[in-house]
Amino acid sequence: MDVPISTAGLDLSLNKEEGPIKYFSWPQHDALQSFLPTLHPYLPYSNPLYNRMKAPHNLPSRHCLFAATFSPGTTTIPKIFTILFADRSRHEESQIWTFNSLNSTTKPLTASQQESLTMHMNAAVRFLKESSIPEAPGWPFSPILKFACLHEHLTSTLVAIGNPSNAVPRQSHWNCWLVNTSTISPASEKALSEGYTITRVPDDQLDIVISTSSIPRQPSTYKLLPSVGVLDPNDKLIAWGYVGIDGSFATLYVLPDFRGRGISSIIGRELLSRLNNGDFSDMGYDGKSGWVHSDVYDGNAGSEAVMRGLGGFIAWKSSYVWIDSARL
After folding, report:
1. Between the chain's N and C termini, which has fewer beta carbons within 10 Å?
2. Do 146 and 94 form a contact (C-beta atoms < 8 A)?
3. How many helices (H) and strands (E) does the chain have?
4. Which domain does 29 fall in, by range?
5. Looking at the domain assignment, is residue 5 inside a domain?
6. For residue 300, what are the contacts with CB-CB under 8 A and spacing of at least 6?
7. Which segments does the entry list as coiled coil (predicted)?
8. Is residue 93 located within the same domain as residue 211?
9. Across the strands, what pairs with 251?
10. Do 305 and 189 share a domain, yes or no?
């Protein structure tokens, strides 16, 4: 399904003089000043990278990489470009988000477009492999490049690059759902049983959140993520939802004894409406992209029902791919 986007000024024809692709590192401040307005017309396709680059976790001390196939000071953005962000110091978590202007459609690429995308991704792997960041926590990094929330065109391209060298140690595939947050109305605590309350997830109850999640995240990461939790009359956490570091609806969980009461829908509505209203601006999440995405396994009926209830729809196939750069 192709998602309607503003196509004013967008031209997906190839750059006439496109030659060898090179990535340029950008200072964080300059990157945000240039990359965000460049990505904005491509929303919601660019949503994962757009929001990940804005995340408050990108502290200078982490020495994140902001890079593009055009150099700092460029005033005319190429028709076909790639922007990437990497925080390689997140060793156990996803690290790399990237967007190419050819990813604003799920239609098959032409042969020339595919050739261009392959050149961009080959160069991206080389750039990440050769980027030395000795000041970053945990340097030297593993050669495994952990790409997150890849559009299906990027997935097939990276896998085609890595498979001949047996350099794809892991990949997972999800349906990427999109929700327009401006259409979400807040939940009502009246829908909960008496004595139950909605609040942000208390930091001192993160142990149960971490123990029930299959996605590795550090406690410090959770503490900086927008969240909504439901507390029982004893102030014990019985359900929760999180907006991820890339602005995704990343976590939704209801303890087994409390399922079947509509609590998941309440959490979803409350979390996304608060995000849209700027209630998490104090944490660095302004919700101004107007979209959230969510990766859901095909056939996960419960999560699919929640997403449909929020007005969501499947937009493209999303993948998480590891590339062993040492083999390339």
Report:
1. N
2. yes
3. 8, 12
4. 24-174+319-327
5. no
6. none
7. none
8. no
9. 242
10. yes
Sheet of 227-231: strand order equals 197-199, 227-231, 237-243, 249-254
Residue 218 sits in the same domain as residue 305:
yes
Would you say 34 and 26 are in contact if contact means Cβ atoms under 8 Å apart?
yes
- Amino acid at residue number 240: W
What letter represents residue 124's amino acid?
A
Encoded tokens for 69: 């196939």
Residues 6+ apart with CB under 8 A from 225: 242, 243, 244, 245, 250, 283
Q: Are residues 60 and 119 in the same domain?
A: yes
Closest by CA position to 128, among listed 162, 173, 78: 162
pLDDT (tens place) for every residue of the chain, 328 residues total: 555 544 334 444 555 445 789 999 999 999 999 999 999 999 999 999 999 999 988 999 999 999 999 999 998 999 999 999 999 998 888 999 999 999 998 899 999 999 999 999 999 999 999 999 999 999 999 999 999 999 999 999 999 999 999 999 999 999 999 999 999 988 776 688 889 999 999 999 999 999 988 776 778 888 989 999 999 999 999 999 999 989 899 899 999 999 999 999 999 999 999 999 999 999 999 999 999 999 999 999 989 999 999 999 999 999 999 999 999 9
204 and 115, same structural domain? no
The enclosing domain of 309 has a CATH number of 3.40.630.30
Instruction: Report helix, strand or coil for 162.
Output: helix
Say if residues 143 and 129 touch (Cβ distance below 8 Å): yes
- The neighbouring-strand residues paired with 56 are none
pLDDT of the residue at 8: 38
**Domain match, 193 and 282 both:** yes
200 vs 182: CA distance, rounded Å: 21
Say what the pTM is.
0.88
Can you say whether the dihedral through the CA atoms of 37, 43, 49, 51 is positive or negative? positive
CA distance 209 to 187: 22
Gap between the Cα atoms of 175 and 149, Å rounded: 10
b/e code 141-153 from CB counts within 10 Å (16+ = b)? beebbbbbbbbeb
Say whether both 33 and 143 belong to one domain: yes
